[in-house]
Sequence to fold (445 residues):
Amino acid sequence: MEVIGQFPLFYFPEYGSAWMMGITGTIHILASHTSVGAAMLFAFLAYKAYKEDRTDLYPYMKKYGMFLLIFSYVIGSITGPGIWYTATAASPRGISALIHNFVWVWATEWVFFVYEVIGVFVLVYFIDKIDKKTHLKLTYTFALASVGTLALIIGIISFMMWPGTEAYYTTGSASDAFFGVNTFPHMFLRIGFMIMMSGVIGLVISSAMKRENPELSAELTKKMGYISLLGGFLTMFFFMWYMGTLPDNAHAVFNISKDSIIQNRIILAAVFSLYFLLAIIKPRFINTTLASAMIAVILLAGLWPGEKLRESMRKPYVAGQYIYSNQIISRDVEGKGIKSELPAIAQKGLLQLNPFVPENLKTVTEKNRLQAGELLTKISCSNCHSLEPTGVFRPMKERLKGMDKSAIKGILYAMGQGAFPYMPKLQLPEHEYDAMAAYLASQNY
Ligand code: HEC
Fold:
């Protein structure tokens, strides 16, 4: 029997597996970006402390480091493997594509990461036990290792959006996969955000020192204000460059809600510019509650929609512009010996080719039509749309409102012809279109 290399479907009702990815990813990004940002900040502060003999900066770095250890490193180390588990369940072929392209890049990144973890412990616990010069050198290597983890991961994440060079599809080489047109803008965008986050976290620590040393607290709050403002500016600047390097399908998704996205980003930028200016002009006004609340605002109003957007803009693909979000391979990648599965699916259908379809649903009959249609819909659409009437993730109900079976079939035919650039060009045999349309129509859309 001919089969395609599918995995059992991980179906997450109401929210969709993409939300699970999004939640784990967003928390991880907050933790990982603050730790890399802080590593750069430490290098800057340690340099200042050494050059200007500012011994009063060491206790600040120690406090900051302790916060980082507990907050970023613990949360980051839990959600990092968490992403692996979630992605393996939600998108097994997506993660498989990344491993097959980048296994050595990841292994190298892991070495940098181990150095980073040891480094943060050493910097916190030995800060007052080693001489200043050794401390300075250590902070430099810590910053290099941290930025190294970013530089290595960024090529992998950028590949998910787009290999960015056509050569990859014929050579299949890791460097063609890694260095695409958006790798560097993406990297600088994240560095900008990391600098901003190092200042945002720095504001929590500096405002907490108000009682013990008001002078130093105000000075550092002011500094963190400048650093955050600079980071925020860099983030916006590189975001615009990054947007210019995205593939057409990403723009098609972006344009659907362009106005509201831009509006939200402008409001966010205004709120944070005011906050950072306040830290610069009236440093004593910043307290720990405000500073902590602003981290929550970044998480909920900045990172969460930002990550959802990046995930959306990859549609219809999950990785490399050859694997659709619903785990179907959509083009040949000669260099890797990968063949598109679309022609076989168009001819024989998903029910026949997917090895995890139960025997009693392999052939559509009068009796099992709705059940087969439900399974087909889950396999083909649930990765991007929640199917329950109360679902929250790009709910199918809203998309098919008021349509009867033949109208829904029209949509499916149009999808099969590639009419929607953000959805898979999924051509199925007539009996499978019919079963899906019958099921979708039976849900009272
Ligand atoms: C790879 C992700 C993905 C898959 C798989 C997917 N969709 Fe979509 N769909 C989208 C995106 C993105 C949009 C556009 C944004 C929106 O409507 O929120 C969309 C929009 C739609 C729309 C509104 C079309 C429009 O532009 O007016 C319909 C109808 C729809 N999808 C039906 C389906 C059906 C039926 C399936 C399964 C056969 C499916 N989708 C599978 C991502 C997907």
About this structure: Residues 253, 256, 312, 315-316, 324-326, 380-381, 383-385, 394, 399-400, 411, 415, 420, 422-424 surround heme C (CB under 6 Å). The first strand starts at residue 317 and ends at 319. The longest helix spans residues 17-51.
